[in-house]
Design goal:
Elements lengths: L2 E2 L2 H8 L13 E2 L4 H13 L4 E4 L16 E4 L6 E5 L4 E5 L4 H9 L17 H7 L6 H4 L2 H4 E7 L5 E4 L13 H4 L8 E8 L6 E9 L2 H15 L3 E8 H11 L10 E9 L2 H17 L5 E5 L2 H10 L1
Parallel strand pairs: 2-4, 3-4
Antiparallel strand pairs: 1-2, 5-6, 6-9, 7-8, 7-9, 10-12, 10-13, 11-12
Helix pairs in contact: 8-10
Bound molecules: flavin-adenine dinucleotide (FAD).
Flavin-adenine dinucleotide (FAD) binds next to β3, α4 and β9.
GO molecular function: (R)-2-hydroxyglutarate dehydrogenase activity; FAD binding
Protein name: D-2-hydroxyglutarate dehydrogenase, mitochondrial
Cofactor: FAD
């Protein structure tokens, strides 16, 4: 269906993921192409009809929900991969592609999306761009201002802006794309995204560590950056009250007992023995210097997922 109406059908578009906010839109439109988005927006603009862009509806601050009865324009049907160049690692796709689906397609070419977040199975790349989503790999790959090479956007009056460059070393100015990254649909509707994607790492290790105080967390973080260098792919900090909350609500316990602070450190690279040796040397130093008190390391996918589930 290209237009959704009726209270029960509209529920999933009018409520957010945590059932915290509720809008009262009476219609959701699902364009398939940039031209359709352009026609919808120019009609709404001419007739003073308010609109609300929506991707995967995983936003946690409600920007994707109508405040009153705005027309929701969903990217659900804009889910085509337009091109994938495995030499440059550049993927061009429509805004409604689900992040995890893009990642699965990239995996076949030995590539990966440069951002990863808990909502990856539902969020759309257009929503990620519009929120400048950070996620778990920001430490290694940077944010979307760097990874998005180009955008196609439809302005509120229906005009199509083609900034869909696929060139990484583009030294020309001005880069209008930056205005749309993180602007939550206030300046235009993102219809296509060109994004650079790094090679997929062959080997991953995850360490889960306990520390005495936040000062030691910072020391461990600094040492991890110095010692692990290019293989460091993620660092997360969890304090004891968050861990208690996770235990109470999700029945997930710390695998190393109780500590005031915990650190999750992930490495990923191309050489298993080199990466593991580097991580072990770092952990030994951190233990000897009393930056950390205890820890475990996982390298099998199931165990890695168990540790990541705490995050
Ligand atoms: C379990 C979970 C984990 C999460 N983890 C993270 C995290 O680690 N880091 C992080 O940054 N966020 C995180 N989020 C928040 C959320 O997933 C991100 O903000 C995500 O980028 C939103 O994408 P979406 O497609 O769901 O967008 P939506 O929620 O549908 O929309 C978000 C905003 O973007 C606008 N928008 C959507 N599509 C377009 C478009 N095509 N053109 C213009 N505007 C548009 C909407 O109007 C709205 O303002 C998490 C959410 C959940 C539920």
């Amino acid at each position: 269906h290209r237009a959704v109406m009726g209270v029960s059908n509209l529920e999933k578009y009018n409520e957010d993921w945590i059932n915290n906010l509720k809008g009262s839109s009476a219609i959701v439109l699902k364009p398939k192409s940039t031209e359709e988005v352009s026609h919808i927006l120019s009609f709404c603009n001419d007739n003073n009809l308010a609109v609300c862009p929506q991707g995967g509806n995983t936003g946690l601050v409600g920007g994707q929900l109508p405040v009153f009865d705005e027309i929701v324009i969903s990217t659900e049907l804009m889910n085509e991969i337009i091109s994938l160049d495995d030499n440059s690692g550049v993927v061009v796709c429509q805004a409604g592609c689900v992040l995890e689906s893009i990642d699965n397609i990239l995996a076949e070419k030995g590539l990966m999306v440069p951002l990863d977040l808990g909502a990856k199975g539902s969020c759309h790349i257009g929503g990620n761009v519009s929120t400048n989503a950070g996620g778990l790999r920001l430490l290694r790959y940077g944010n979307l201002h760097g990874n998005v090479l180009g955008l196609e956007v439809v302005k509120a009056n229906g005009e199509i802006l083609d900034c869909l460059s696929t060139l990484k070393k583009d030294n020309t100015g001005y880069h209008l794309k930056h205005l749309f990254i993180g602007s939550e649909g206030t300046l235009g509707f993102v219809t296509k995204v060109a994004m650079q994607c790094p090679p997929r790492s062959k080997h991953t290790n995850v360490a889960f560590l306990g520390t005495q105080n936040f000062g030691k967390v910072l020391k461990t973080f600094k040492k991890a950056k110095q010692d692990l260098g290019e293989i460091l792919s993620a660092v997360e900090v969890i304090d004891s009250s968050t861990m208690e909350f996770i235990d109470e609500k999700l029945n997930i316990k710390s695998p190393i007992g109780e500590y005031p602070f915990y650190l999750l450190i992930e490495t990923s690279g191309s050489n298993e023995s080199h990466d593991t040796e580097k991580l072990n040397t770092f952990l030994e130093t951190a233990l000897n210097k009393h930056f950390i008190l205890n820890g475990i390391v996982a390298s099998e996918p199931a165990k890695i997922n168990t540790i990541w589930s705490i995050r």
